[in-house]
Amino acid sequence: MKLSRRSLIGAGLTGAAASAFGISGIPIIPENKPKQVKNIIFCVVDGMAMQTLSMADQLHQMIYGKQSYWAWLMEQDFAVNGLEETRSLSSIVTDSSAASSTWGSGRRIWNGQVNVFPDGTKLRTLTSLMSEAGVKCGLVTTTTMTHATPAGFAVNSMRRDDEPGIAEKYIAAGVDILMGGGDRHFSAAKRKDKKDAYADYQRAGYTIAKSRDEVIGWKGKKLLGIFSDSHTPYSVDRNNSDELRKTVPTLAEMATIAIDNLKGSPNGFLLQIEGGKVDHGGHANDVAALLYDQLAFEEAVKVAVDFALKDGETLVIITADHATGGPSLNGAGDEYFDSTAGLHTVMGMKASYGVIQSDLGKTPTDKMVQDVIENRLGLQLKTEEAAAISGALANKYAFGLSEFQRSFSSTLGTILGNHSKITWTSGNHTSDHVMLTAVGPGNEFASGLTKNMHLFDIMLAAKGLKHSNPTMSFEDAKMHYDKMKESQKTDVVAAHASPEELNLWQ
Ligand SMILES: [Zn+2]
């Protein structure tokens, strides 16, 4: 029997009155109570468009002769599939902090902020509510530990890009296991204020780990594992580097370590697993970065679902926060024969744009561009294609009349599209609905279209909890936001939390 989504959303919220009374006002029998579970694993792939999911599946079939894991999962009887809408308080197009905050507080949030309204009102967060109820909490990610998506489950911050500030907030937010990148936001030697954020975690009983060796097989209660200075490397770069494979765990390995150490909790656990760099591949219009990180995310999903199927008391939710970049494999050539060959070129790609740009330097000749692209991506560029790329490095954009094509990475992405047949709508987030799959007791909610902020109520209800945060209208939020901007004289809507990494390509 299908459970109504409304029955899973906490009482006192919009729609609860409508479900308690029929149209005539006569009380009707309440629908089934939500099924409760012991554990919740929330797998989020940041910035995954439906086309990314499709292309990753098609690429996986080319490489391994079988479906990608998520595609396989969607066909199983034990999985329920639907879509999630993704908007924020400030825009139809959300950023990652507002998106994750909808799951973290049950309210739509202004882009660039984390579980707060622009007047400074702080909302109770999912991990703080769960840990108060004795539920152990974990966050693992391929971005910085302090990035928008893990932060959105746990902390309050007026600015998503205040990552040093966010680094200090996870202990009080009740998070027991943390793994990701971002040493620069914890280390006294790297922080502007010279504060040693690691020392706070040590005093609170956390094991601090800095490399893959230190966490594989780790057993304990509290862990802060930080494996890179900023975000962890793209999977395409990790896969092609012996050193990176030794030092940085995969997302699937981090998921395994987190589950192994959270699963003994008497009141269960909540774990967020984020494949964060699919978003970065989308921003960069970098198809190898995008698709190999998507496949790495799906390996981590398999770890979560395998555990849930064995355990029987775990709800796994798999979704994205929004789509990024609008990538598509286009029909090309007679009978679209060239499209298959285009996707096939991704199998020969061995590096992300970051590696390619460091090979190129600032002023490469057109011949150098051809050599680097052939060496790293296995593609042979025409001279005029190489010239468009070297021109973009000198800020002369071949497609500069389009406001979405004025960057080095979009130029490179467009030129490479002649070969891969994969093109992009922009280097920004888009408004698309995203995929939603759920496995485990109570997973019926996932069918149809789910609003992003309802996942907060669904997760709390699955643990027998409910909480209703305050609300704010767009008009009030806009007024407070304008005031705040005026007083801060700064733009709080960070286009991205790691500007230095993105600026590298723009
Ligand atoms: Zn993004």
Provide structural commentary.
The protein has 506 residues and is an alpha/beta fold. It has two domains: 359 residues, Alkaline Phosphatase, subunit A, CATH 3.40.720.10; 72 residues. 41% of the residues lie in helices and 13% in strands. It contains 23 helices and 14 strands. It has a ten-stranded mixed beta sheet, sandwiched between helices. α10 links the parallel β5 and β6. α3 crosses α15 and α14 runs antiparallel to α15. The longest helix has 25 residues. The radius of gyration is 23 Å and the shape is globular. The protein starts with a helix and ends with a helix. The N terminus and C terminus are likely disordered. The chain binds zinc ion. Zinc ion binds next to α14.
How much strand?
Answer: 5-15%
Q: CATH superfamily membership of the largest domain, which one?
A: Alkaline Phosphatase, subunit A
Question: How many helices?
Answer: 23
What level of helicity do the residues show?
Answer: 40-55%
Structural class: alpha/beta
Quaternary arrangement of the chains shown? single chain
Low-confidence stretches: 1-30, 491-506
